[in-house]
Each structure stands twice: as C-alpha cells, then as structure tokens.
Amino acid sequence: MSAKLNILQKDKATEPQAGEMQSSEELPTYQEIAKSPEKSSEKDLLYKTKNAQKPEDLLVHLLSTELNIDDKKTLIRNAPSRIYDSDHHRQNAEKVEAQLKDAGYSQLAIVLYWCFFWHGVQPRGPESWIKELIENDIERRWIAQRRARIQEKVQTLETSSDLLLSSEGEAEHASQLELYKGLLQDLNRSHWALSRKSWNKRESIKSWSFSRAYNIQRSYPDWYLSTSLSDDCAGRGGCCGRSCGCCERPRTVDGFEDHIGTRGHCTTACSCCMKAHGVEDLDDLLVEEIPDLEELCFEYKKPSCMTHQSLRLLMGYAFNLPKAE
Fold first, then answer.
1. 131 with 298: CB under 8 angstroms?
2. Which of 8, 192, 301, 315 has the fewest CB atoms nearer than 10 Å to its CB?
3. Which long-range contacts (CB under 8 A, 24 or more apart) does 67-72 make?
4. Model confidence, pTM
C-alpha cells in the first residue's frame, strides 16, 4: 500500500498544475510577435540569388512552382548585376530564354533581357534607331487607318450612285470615286515601301538585349495591347479610352480585302476618334502630313534618365507583353 501511495504522490508531483498549463498555452503578445526574426519576401528573394554568377543560376527558382510570377520578376530584377554582363553571358542568357519559353514563361525572358538592357552600356550621345522603329509603327498605323477612312468614302459613293439624277452629278461622283481609288493605290504603295524599310530597321537593331526582347514580343500578334501602349493611346484621346474596342480589331471596311496589317492603336487618321471628338466632317484626306510623327515625344538615353513618356514607349515597343500574358 505504501509503495502504491508513493507512486501516486510522485505522479501528482510531476503533473502540471492548472496555472502552469494556462501560462504555457498563452498566445504571444503583439510585442513578442513584432520581435520575431521573420524575413520579408524581398529579403528571401535576395537570399536566393545572392550567389548567382550567371543567368542560368536563376533557373531553379524561375521554374519553381513555389514562387508566383511577380516574385519571379522581382527575383530577376534583384539578382546581382554581374550576371547581366552581356559580353560574357549572352549565350547563357539565350539558353535560359529557350527554357523559359518552353515552360511558358516568355514574360520572364523579356524581364531578363530588360535587366541586361538596363545594366548594359548606354549611348553617350543621341541615338535614333529606337525612335525610328516607333516612327515606322506610327506611320504604318496611320496608313491603315487613313486607308479605312477612304474605303468608307468609296463605299458611300458607290452606294449612292444609284440615286443620282443629273449627268452633272454623275460626273462629279465619278471624279470623286476615281480620286479616292487613286489615293488607295498610293497608300498601298506607301505601305509596301514602309514594310521593306521596317524590315531593314528591325535587322539593324544595335542592342542585343533589345533585339532579343523585341523578337519575343513580336511573336505575339497582340503585342501592342500592353498596358504601356494602351495607356498611351487612351491618354492621346484614342479608342483605348473608350469601350468601342477599335484597337483590338482590324481597321477594315466590309467589302474590301485586307492585304496589309491594319491592327494597332489610334492615330490622327482614326475615323472613330474623329467622330468621338466631333471632327468627322473635316475632309482632310488629301493632306499627306502625319501629325503623330511631329507630336512623338521620345528620347533614347540611359533608362534611369529617360522621361516617363519615353520610358513608357521604350517598354511598350520591346519589353512588355499583352495584358493577358
């Protein structure tokens, strides 16, 4: 009996008291939580890349399912600048690009090339090759939209031809129709010449990283529907600021075959914009100047020193993908 009692007393002595149990289960105070040494997400990403020596060293994280797309972009941007030395890591970067594209991460490949561009040798003086690429695109869009406006005129004239009663009216009608069809031919020739010029400009891009990003971007038919260029269109009073959806559709008129690329953001030749701003009755179809080229505000220099508008266009024409990507 005494032995059994001793065991019970021993068990009772080792059993935690109610007060002790409550104390051990109490939640930590706010001050205690604040003092806990938890790493921020950004610090964690920096830790993952601090020892990277080349772009390929980032792949294990970029292909990981543990990080979301925004974390992966941050990881690329925060990686050591030494991996963005294009003189030593071009082939390695292109190898990474191929693997990212195969995995469906073209967007990350573009961010990678943006970092190469950012850390690369920047021009000491003014250079115009990027601006010329932008100007070619503006002119292409202007031609397509002006062509659509003339097609509308031709369609209207052809529809109204049956309503003419006098021979004098018929002669004037025929003269206008001939004029507009001649303008269409001129625009087709201009577009053909511009296409050849654009190809030559594309082949003579001076920056390796810009060229790689540009080619990835242009593999998407809707490349121009990035946030950067859509915001620019809306800011200039274009259709991206309205719900018409013109920028997402070909700029063509029913009954006319489309032999040229007609999709793109608005220019001063956009028929929908003219109607929206109440200037649809101004017949300036004989004017050949392109105001959009005169209004273009872009200067290429070190990215960190570029104006907001110049940087937005730079990103939009090479380093951004459509919104859905």
1. yes
2. 8
3. 69/105, 69/107, 69/108, 71/41, 71/45, 72/105, 72/108
4. 0.79
